[in-house]
Amino acid sequence: MTNEEMLRLKGMHLAPYMQLATSLIGKTREGGGNMFRHQLDTMTILLDYGYIDSVILKASIVHDLLEDIPDFNHNLLLSIDYESAAVYELVLEVTRLPGETKGEFLTRVFHLGSRSAKILKVADRISNMISLGFVNDPSFIKRYTEETVTYIFPIAREVDKSMLAELETLVDSRRKYLALLAAGSA
């Protein structure tokens, strides 16, 4: 990491965003854990790939708030700091709209999303695919894996080939697991 990058990170205040995200602690995930930890996992994936933009990192911490907490007061998010409006706009880009199918949502992100929204969505999916290793429902694993190939691979191909490579490895892992399950039940 360069000195310039260190200085950019040094002045970044993430704690207020983390505090808002704690409202996701009670929201469980299919593979265990809770949505709060998923927010932080998504942020660490972004850091792992070298993304240090303050808006995308802040948005990663709260990216599921609007979708998973229906009565969330968005003014709490908008009042955190001078970047709050940009963070909120990015969160909106990666939030599924009421009545929107998963396919419609992911297609919208691919065609209309900003580069930051696409990067955030790919990091989010990497976190989700890692968690998929703890899921026991083969039909869910198959559906989610194929959804990743259909909708997320094209986004990753556009924005970050290294993230795409990780997703390809994760998809391959889940497909091998499903094949083992199928062979064991035959």
Q: Which shape, going by the Cα principal axes?
A: globular
Q: Low-confidence spans: pLDDT under 50, at least 5 residues?
A: none
> What is the string of helix and strand elements?
HHHHHHHHHHH
Rg result: 17 Å
How many H/I helices? Answer: 11
Q: Report the helical percentage.
A: over 70%
CATH architecture: Orthogonal Bundle
What is the name of the CATH superfamily? Hypothetical protein af1432
The number of distinct structural domains comes to 1
Give a brief description.
This protein is mainly alpha-helical. It has helices at 3-10, 15-21, 35-48, 54-62, 65-68, 74-78, 84-93, 102-112, 115-131, 138-159, 161-185.
Describe the model.
By secondary structure, the chain is mainly alpha-helical. It has a single domain (3-185), classed as Orthogonal Bundle (Hypothetical protein af1432), CATH 1.10.3210.10. The chain contains 11 helices and no strands. The radius of gyration is 17 Å and the shape is globular.
